[in-house]
Specification:
This protein has about 150 residues and is an all-alpha fold. About 85% of the residues lie in helices and about 0% in strands.
């Protein structure tokens, strides 16, 4: 991660809005092991919500936690594509987003919609739920990772 950032820092600073540069420096210009720890925490939270959903069924707060996390996960993949378009080059996560996450998201939502498990309103409700969960989780994970 840090090698890519160092190679692209000049272009990032030229193309990002000033507010985005400061956010980038605080949150993403981390060492690879720190960034990996944040991704691991996200993986554990998503896995935990998946297990809860499996054990308790697709209902109640388990449903909203799971849908919220999945919504943010899929929407976040779009940021990787946006970064690649903005910089006009490869960015970390763009290939995974295009090949895996977006197609998975399409199948995920289509399957749940066709089965009648969710409706379009559930998807729209899950987005702010996911954003709130992410806003609580991400800063804490980044702070913990900065210790290593």
């Amino acid at each position: 991660m840090e090698k890519w950032v160092e190679r692209n820092r000049k272009d990032l600073y030229e193309k990002l809005p000033k507010k985005a540069i400061s956010y980038f420096e605080r949150n993403f210009a981390k060492k690879t092991n720190q960034f990996s720890l944040v991704v691991y925490v996200e993986f554990v939270v998503i896995s935990f919500s998946t297990i809860l959903l499996y054990l308790e069924g697709f209902q109640g707060w388990y449903k909203w936690l799971y849908l919220g996390l999945m919504s943010v996960f899929v929407l976040h993949s779009l940021t990787h594509i946006g970064q690649a378009v903005l910089l006009k080059r490869y960015t970390p996560g763009v290939i995974t987003s295009v090949i895996l996450i977006i197609p998975y998201g399409v199948v995920f939502y289509r399957t749940l919609l066709e089965a009648g498990t969710i409706d379009i309103a559930d998807i729209w409700i899950s987005i702010p739920v996911g954003i709130v969960v992410f806003m609580l989780l991400f800063p804490a994970a980044m702070k913990a990772a900065s210790r290593y």
